[in-house]
Amino acid sequence: MKILTLNFLTCARKLCKSSNTAFPLHPQDAELEIVEQDMNVEFLRNILPRLMWEELSGVVGELGLPALPPTVPTLESLTEKKLKAAENDPTGMNVVEVEVPSQVALDLHRLLLETCVKEGKLVCGSCGHEYQVREGIANFLLPGHLV
To answer: Which is one GO molecular function term here (predicted)?
Structure first.
């Protein structure tokens, strides 16, 4: 389960729906793994405005990962313009300006899309219910007495 997913999950109990403490779910005993993926700056641009930055920062801290910046990065900070020799130009005289992912984009990509919770549990801050995570999949099925 990608770290990005934690930005969208809340407790499944009806009693917790109205509680502010039911989001985000808090990872405990989490075993993390890195799953390499192709860089997708356009996806980061689209998802950045939807991130609950303060809550995500808290989850990152709970996992013991490097802290996020205090404010949400700007969309412009995700790419840098660099000069590059045009393809198929053996002389190297034709130089074009290209956009490449910035270090901010690379770090966000690594954290949100490549860092995964492989094993552990997610705990509701309101009711304390624990959702098990096994092999990267969280089990949100509630026992009958909690539905």
So the answer is: protein heterodimerization activity
Contact 116, 136 (CB under 8 A): yes
Report the C-alpha gap between 33 and 98 in whole angstroms. Answer: 32
Question: Both ends of the chain: CA-CA distance in Å?
Answer: 24
In whole angstroms, give the CA distance from residue 52 to residue 99. 27
Largest CA distance in the chain: 74
Residues composing the chain: 147
In the block, residue with structure tokens 């192709």: 38
In this prediction, residue 144 carries a pLDDT of 82
Residue 92 backbone class (left: φ over 0; alpha: ψ -120 to 50; beta: rest): left
Q: Which amino acid is at 117?
A: V
Q: pLDDT tens, 105-131?
A: 999 999 999 999 999 999 999 999 999
